[in-house]
Specification:
About 50% of the residues lie in helices and about 15% in strands. The longest helix is centred in the C-terminal third of the chain and has 27 residues.
Length: about 170
């Protein structure tokens, strides 16, 4: 029986790579609280501090996937508690649009997640990261950089067919 976990070239077990964009005022502070409280979570998330979840440009998320991330997590203040008034609502609107776009790209919904985590919720940081790592482990590697190569080949083949038909019409 095949395992859901892929093996890399050195026969080590594959581990998901998660890029996490955390709001400075709430989620990043909660992650710090988790750390000083010695709450251990999976080491798979690379945390990037942003001033507000609303400042996470959709291109950051797409770039993370394009550069090999298996999942992206955004952490922001609870609705109504944003330091910048409505930044978290902006993040929510962007997330919904990105989910639609990623669906069209073949990226599973569980690979992109938005969570509201206040500064006092260190335990929630641990729970969310661990849960996301397990869900992505079950999905397996995304491998988007390899897909780009395949898509480029498909486009080249398509272009050759179109040019061939145009030449036949003009001949």
């Amino acid at each position: 029986m095949l395992s859901n976990l892929s093996q890399n070239t050195t026969n080590e077990k594959w581990e998901p790579k998660i890029v996490a964009f955390f709001c400075n005022w709430c989620t990043y502070t909660a992650a710090d609280l988790a750390g000083v409280s010695r709450l251990k979570h999976a080491p798979n998330a690379r945390i990037i501090r942003v001033m507000c979840s609303g400042r996470v440009d959709p291109q950051f998320i797409l770039d993370a996937f394009a550069k090999g991330a298996d999942g992206v997590l955004i952490g922001g203040c609870h609705p109504g508690d944003c330091h910048y008034m409505e930044g978290n609502y902006k993040a929510l609107r962007r997330m919904r649009l990105l989910h639609r776009m990623m669906y069209d790209m073949g990226i599973e919904k569980d690979r992109f997640r938005l969570e509201w985590i206040s500064a006092s919720e260190g335990e929630k940081v641990r729970t969310v990261i661990n849960d996301m790592v397990e869900k992505i482990r079950a999905l397996g590697p995304l491998g988007l950089p390899k897909r780009f190569v395949e898509w480029d080949k498909e486009m080249e083949s398509f272009e050759e067919r179109v040019l061939g038909k145009e030449e036949a019409v003009h001949a």
